[in-house]
Amino acid sequence: MATTAIQPGGRGPGGPGGPGGARGPRGPVDAGQADIGGYAPVASSIAALITDAPQPQPTLAKTFAAMMAREFRVLRRNAVSTFTRAVMQPLLFVFVFAYVFPKIGGGFMLGGAAHSNPVSGTAGAVSGSVNFATILVPGLVASMLLMQGIFGVTFPLVMEFSWQRTIEDRALAPVPIRVLAVQKITAGAVQSFLGACIVFPVVLFVHAAGQAPHVHVTNWFLLALIMVSGATLTASLGLLLGTVMDPRKMQMMFAVILLPATMLGCVYYPWSALHSIRWLQILVLINPMVYMSEGLRAVLTPSLGHMPLWAVLLALLGGTVVFGFLGTRTFRNRVIN
Amino acid sequence: MTTEIPHAVTTEIPQAATPQATTPQAATPQAITPQAATPHAATPQAATPRVTPGSAIRTQDLRKTYSTSRGNVEAVRGIDLDIPEGEFFGLLGPNGAGKSTTIGMLTTLIHPTGGKAWVASTEVTKDPVAVKRRIGVVTQNNTLDMQLTVAENLQFRSRFFGLPARAAARRAAQLIDAFGLGDRRNAMADQLSGGQARRLLIARALVHRPDVLFLDEPTAGLDPQTRVNLWDILQVLHEQGQTILLTTHYMEEAEALCDRIAVVDHGKILAEGTVDVLKENAGAVTVVTVRYEEPVPSGLSERSGLAGRPGVTKVETDHDQIRVFSRDPEGLLGELVEIGGREGLHVRDAAQLKPSLETVFLTLTGREYRE
């Protein structure tokens, strides 16, 4: 293909800003002519962008798949930071509570609450006390679902809605804005699910002698269902938070949302253990973390007291629908002025 | 003898030099009022849409009002456009004129509060997805995906528009070569210079061969050389039949690139047409401004008979300066110096703007072009 460089200076007497500029034909560039700014556009190459352009046939499925592919590319690029973020919290927790404390003679055991479950009435009696690592496994997995869901959706979204509004990059893709919101939830859920999976080897293998958690999965389908439901719920919550929170007050999210959700989310104790503080046991029911922790407790450590599974699944599904609906609506309102 | 003085001199004139603050327009019978000078005045904005076969963009009384804590703000107040396929059309106006809001409504990112808009024969609010399939948008902000490299930005945008991965990679390579980004192919988007980022934004908007290309202030903040490069690119695209809607607040940019221009201010089109038509409609006036060392005495313009001078369409005075709009500026500058001398005024500086979009803007709005 013959190439003709556009003459940068060829704008007539007015120069670049002159009234006669940019209209006349441009001759071939001189061999010794310096490119302006290190780049001289070549007319034939630019023209070929129009004449040789492919004819794309976008469909909703193709665009959605491409957006997911973009998410995976970014996830892969940030794999080290994502992995580190996912590993550190559970690693430190189990290291302190399942390794350091037992070694120094302060091992945590949970007794009575595990024996009796007066509120839920579910089976939960175990003989003897339960080591703390067993209590921690479902709680830390649930905690990671929440953290990754928030980190995977809320923080990128806040950046995309900042003054440069890079969200417009994907808002101009040929799909409805609602689909873009659903794609954000899906991508966040995948990240949340993967992050939670990383917790398992950490909590299962880091412990002092005799402090191994007693995990027994009897229903893998239920485990997957609860993890996927929990991941979707946290990603939906992440979408809602990312579209309603003031970017300048993001640090408040840790104090107002993440910390209370984790500390009062039955991560470190089963919900049934709160029966002696009845008001708190009822109050924490507004915390979606409770249902994730209890659901995972039901499928990972079924011998411990836990909420009925139907209640867990109902809450996870309901929470996903509510957060997803609200998040999608606020997302659309933020994207379309 | 006329003296060409750089535009920069005239920008020193305070904005207070408005018709309201100076000689009333009634004193200049030939004064061109903004409305009278607009093509719209000759062809009033009709209630029914103007249907033009082959329209790439058409709007009918397009409006956008924002509700704020301080009340409603009318950003766009009834804009009618009809842009045929293949045209390079410019929306020219100062910051805050409503240009970006108009583009936002045409590109589905802003919901109109009134009127209608069609892009590529599709009503924007009724089928925004169909519109998005057929447009390319270069946003004013750098909206590149900062998590991706240059090549990935183009590849994924191609895939968003349905190209398979391999075809997307080929298209990205073609765009990278054409836009001279080969050595930055694997650089992250946030590592690009302003000019490179702007080129990538334009390349990204072209991945799917859009029917209409929207460019919102594409050269704002760029150095003159980079701006010239982008002009060249846009000119070649236009020569290939690409329909382009450009917003700019650079008069010379609109004048150099656009087939037709609409001058916009305060959410309304003040005038529309080719550069030549705009100049003609606005009176093709030369604007002569003289600033004196001393304040201009009241009644000077009346005493001097300037308003009655052949060719003069308007005379404005403000504090220490006098501005005369004239179709026949020959000798006017000297006359102003002489008139000042008779009143004991000493000339500090003078400027003469030949008929241009800047004088059109001055004539239409009665005030300085504010960038």
Question: Briefly, what is this?
Answer:
The complex is a heterodimer of chains A (337) and B (371). With 337 residues, chain A is mainly alpha-helical. In chain A, 60% of the residues lie in helices and 1% in strands.
Number of helices of chain A: 12
Mean pLDDT of chain A: 78
Structural class of chain A: mainly alpha
- Percent of residues in β-strands of chain B: 25-35%
Radius of gyration of chain B: 23 Å
Could you outline the blueprint of secondary structure elements for this entry?
The complex is a heterodimer of chains A (337) and B (371).
Chain A: H1 43-51, H2 60-77, H3 79-103, E1 109-110, H4 112-115, E2 130-131, H5 132-160, H6 167-171, H7 177-205, H8 220-244, H9 251-263, H10 278-283, H11 288-300, H12 309-335
Antiparallel strand pairs in A: 1-2
Helix pairs in contact in A: 2-7, 3-5, 3-7, 5-7, 5-8, 5-11, 7-8, 7-12, 8-11, 8-12, 11-12
Chain B: H1 7-10, H2 34-37, H3 39-42, E1 55-68, E2 71-84, E3 88-92, H4 99-106, E4 114-119, E5 122-123, H5 128-133, E6 135-138, H6 150-160, H7 165-178, H8 194-205, E7 212-216, H9 224-239, E8 243-248, H10 251-257, E9 260-265, E10 268-273, H11 275-281, E11 286-292, H12 300-304, E12 312-318, E13 321-326, H13 332-342, E14 347-353, H14 357-365
Descriptive overview:
The complex is a heterodimer of chains A (337) and B (371). Chain A is mainly α. Chain A contains twelve helices and two strands; from the N terminus they run αααβαβαααααααα. In chain A, helix 5 runs antiparallel to helix 7 and helix 8 packs antiparallel against helix 11. The two termini of chain A are 45 Å apart. The N terminus of chain A is likely disordered. With 371 residues, chain B is an alpha/beta fold. Helices cover 32% and strands 26% of the residues of chain B. Chain B is built from 14 helices and 14 strands. In chain B, the strands form three sheets. Chain B has a six-stranded mixed sheet with strand order 6-7-8-3-9-10, sandwiched between helices. In chain B, helix 6 crosses helix 7. Chain B is elongated and about 80 Å long. The two termini of chain B are 31 Å apart. Chains A and B meet through helix 1, helix 2 and helix 6 of A and helix 5, helix 6, helix 7, helix 9 and helix 10 of B.
